[in-house]
Amino acid sequence: MRLFHQTFAGFALLLATAAAAQPMADLSGRDPHWIRDPAKDCWAANPTPEQGETVTWTGECEGGLLNGQGTLTWYVNGKPFGRDEGNFKAGQLAGHGRIIFADGANFEGEFPGHGILTLPSGRTVEAVSINESSGWSIEQAANSPAP
Predict the structure, then answer these.
(1) Rounded Cα–Cα distance for residues 12 and 119 (Å)
(2) pLDDT, tens digit, for every residue of 105-130?
(3) Most buried in the list 15, 36, 59, 91, measured by CB within 10 Å?
(4) What confidence score (pLDDT) does residue 48 get?
(5) Residue 111 contacts by C-beta under 8 Å, 6 or more apart in sequence?
(6) What is the mean pLDDT of the chain?
(7) What is the 3-state secondary structure (H, E, C) of the chain?
(8) Largest Cα–Cα distance in the chain?
């Protein structure tokens, strides 16, 4: 499941939109860390699955995984929860992309790499995306002033 933890102490915004690099995706449906868009028969990395979660994907698939330009929309109990847009490889964001959170915040930049985090208030801060075992971590860049 896409998990958004907003921790403004130390200003780390943790989200799990993509799993850390995995040697081989288990697309049998038994591994909850992969979620399938049934209309496209295409799988996305899902490091923190939750009950009632579904996705839709607008791009292409390669080997059953999200690949290339597209939009991955996340739903919880049928309600939109967030959206990932950009370039995907092996089921996860790779290269330039944007994550839009349910609260209106968004990060646009490189996965992994530098970008801009826009807070719900509209304020922007420089940030970096880091691929961790729990998913993408978006953290304030060291040279960016505190929000």
Answers:
(1) 12
(2) 999 999 999 999 999 999 999 999 99
(3) 91
(4) 77
(5) 18, 86, 92, 93, 94, 95, 96, 97, 129, 131, 136
(6) 83
(7) CCCEEEECCCCEEEECCCCCCCCCCCCCCCCCCEEEECCCCEEEECCCCCCCEEEEECCEEECCEEEEEEEEEEEECCEEEEEEEEEEECCEEEEEEEEEECCCCEEEEEECEEEEEECCCCCEEEEEEEEECCEEEEEECCCCCCC
(8) 45
Sign (positive or negative) of CA dihedral 119, 120, 123, 124: positive
> What local confidence, expressed as pLDDT, does residue 146 receive?
63
Distance CA 35, CA 102 (A): 19
Are the C-beta atoms of residues 97 and 84 closer than 8 Å to each other? Answer: yes
Which of 139, 59, 125 has its CA nearest to residue 93?
Answer: 59
2 pLDDT higher than 70:
no
Structure tokens at 70: 């597209």
Contact indicator for 74, 83 with CB cutoff of 8 Å:
yes
Q: What is the pLDDT of residue 129?
A: 93
Six-digit token string for 76: 């919880």
